[in-house]
């Protein structure tokens, strides 16, 4: 079965990479550290959130030790480290090719691992993660 280009690209780019591949290779001066601001420990991740020129659908690790997220729609100094509950959740049902999926699927994955979309429209958004 042919692998959809989107999935293949995402796979090549790595399991944790849910954004465009070159974003993480940003030069250090362009990446401001979030640590200037205190963590909002009781905050809730806002997905997707905007940070710099990226849109993030899950917790991110951009030159930081641990994954974090913004608690506002657009990052403005409010952030928190992600705990188990904070990571992005599968969105059901979602569209993939011409089908509607109501649970994780192996369709299109080269290794037969189950994955899900993080938005309702995989075809358009191409944002996904593996299911545990
Ligand atoms: C961003 O989130 C923080 C923490 O929840 C909140 O105090 C602040 O008012 C929010 N900012 C905006 C513009 O909503």
UniProtKB/TrEMBL annotation:
Q: Name one GO cellular component term.
A: cell surface
- What Gene3D superfamilies does the entry give? Fibronectin, type II, collagen-binding (2.10.10.10)
Alphabetized, the UniProt keywords read: Disulfide bond, Fertilization, Repeat, Secreted, Signal
User: What does UniProt give as the signal peptide span?
Assistant: 1-17
Where in or outside the cell is it found? Secreted
User: Please, one GO biological process term?
Assistant: sperm capacitation
Q: Which Pfam families match?
A: fn2
What are the residue boundaries of the Fibronectin type-II domain, all occurrences included? 40-84, 85-132
* Cysteine pairings via disulfide bonds: 90-116, 104-131
Record's PANTHER family?
BINDER OF SPERM PROTEIN HOMOLOG 1, SEMINAL PLASMA PROTEIN
Tell me the protein's name: Binder of sperm protein homolog 1-like
UniProt organism field? Enhydra lutris kenyoni
């Amino acid at each position: 079965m042919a692998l959809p280009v989107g999935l293949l690209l995402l796979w090549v780019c790595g399991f944790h990479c849910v954004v465009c591949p070159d974003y993480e290779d940003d030069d250090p001066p362009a990446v401001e550290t979030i640590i200037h601001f205190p963590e909002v420990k009781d905050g809730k991740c806002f997905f997707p959130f905007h940070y710099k020129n990226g849109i993030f659908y899950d917790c991110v690790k951009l030159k930081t030790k641990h994954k974090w997220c913004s608690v506002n729609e657009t990052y403005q100094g409010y952030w928190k480290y992600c705990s188990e509950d904070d990571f992005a959740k599968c969105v059901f049902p979602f569209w993939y090719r011409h089908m509607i999926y109501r649970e994780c699927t192996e369709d299109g994955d080269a290794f037969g691992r189950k994955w899900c979309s993080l938005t309702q429209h995989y075809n358009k958004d191409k944002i996904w993660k593996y299911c545990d």
